[in-house]
Write a structure and sequence with these properties.
It is built from 1 helix and 8 strands; from the N terminus they run αββββββββ. The protein is an alpha/beta fold. It has 2 domains: about 35 residues; about 80 residues, Cupredoxins -  blue copper proteins (Immunoglobulin-like). The chain has a 4-stranded mixed sheet with strand order 2-1-4-6, with no helix packed on it.
Length: about 130
Amino acid sequence: MREIKTRKARKGLGALVGGVLALSALAAGCGGGGEGAPAMAAEGNPPDAVEIVDFEFDPTMVTVEAGTEVVWTNRDNAAHTASAKDGSFDTGTLGSGESGRVTLDEPGTYAYICEFHPFMTGTIEVE
């Protein structure tokens, strides 16, 4: 898979993917995202994927079903973590290009930060 390094390029890719999905749905006659359509998070990421880009979690808010594995991938040059404020999970240190995974089994709201850069925040809503 080719790594996309700029936010502008990722936004363009997200718009392209969104357009293709919309046209596919229209061609199938369903007119959009019904119950069987996959949920998509910001900029075309699957709902269980969070990228770390430019010292931000992208998307900052993700909603998943209980038992879902959430994957954080570090696209920055600096090391980062995704660490729950309540201590319930921690990806450990993620170097550039590395990923960390956490499975969230209990419904609730999980606020998290990067321990190295506490201004970086995100939230996982587990239903």
